[in-house]
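Our consortium's second objective concerns turning raw sequence data into structural hypotheses that experimental partners can test. To show how far this objective has progressed, the report includes one record in full. It was chosen at random from the queue rather than selected for favorable results. The single chain below, 325 residues long, was entered without modification.
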Amino acid sequence: MAVLLIAEHNNSTLKVYTLNAITAASEIDKEVHVLVAGNKCENVVKEVAAVSLVKKVLHSESSDYENFLAENLSPLIVKLAERYTHIISSANTFGKNFMPRVAALLDTSQISDIIKIESSDTFVRPIYAGNALVTVKSNDKKKCITIRPTSFDPAPSSGESASEKLKKGTLVEKVEPVAVPNISKFIKREETKSERPELGTARIVIAGGRGLQSKENFKLINDIADKLNAAVGASRAAVDAGYISNDHQVGQTGKVVVPDLYIAVGISGAIQHLAGMKESKVIVAINKDGEAPIFSIADYSLEADLFKALPEFLEELNKLNTIQK
């Protein structure tokens, strides 16, 4: 048997978290098959085929799959599951949307947010907002698993073109779409357009919290992010207060990030927020409360008024940029 990974894409390009999930899947079984379901997604098939760890690409084309509705994707995945021991996706909004439905239809217990593979039936996942790790062994014949992508390195490309790799044995299998239940309808998608790096994959993240006090004050965070080419994040408190939209939220109920540098500004460090960023390689915290929990995990801490510290920080960045030019 083999493992089936569901590729995340936008019908034209592959999402980077799929590469992380492929690495995790290969630790379960070397026979990794990837399902690319979408509409006019031939380019995505070529991208997946060029990944060295992928043995087969399953390609299913239908307008029903264009917007990745869980109700439409699930019947296809359940049908294909007959061939596989493991069904895998990333533990992000994409995977969390359809995997519970797939697990229910297969009458199996979903194992969520895996950060380590012990064996084909034993996995490590965080609990209690990341404050403890639990090792889980599943006796289910078919296992539905979501992978925390930031815990695994992206799978490398083979260095060959898709056509060259296909000649050497990577197969593309056409899969006929299945009938979908007429129980949901796609209306529209609203996406935030930004020239900044994507929050989930950015090397540098600067995040603001309730300490910024208003939506207008978030401009301080945005100005520094532009200088550092960083993504902008936020605590749930800042999102709930309306300072910034919820697609910037970092934490247990937001995005999990593992950047090279995470700068937390005006964030006290509630346990739910720490669960989403404490694996960052270097953590810098700026807060006027010296007892703030964020200081306990920070590599560098600055106890200061952010309304004084951030303008000074920005001034130094401007000086540095002037010298470099």
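The partners drew two points from this record. The first helix runs from residue 16 to 28. The domain at 2-174 is CATH 3.40.50.620 (Rossmann fold). Both points have been shared with the crystallography group to help prioritize constructs.
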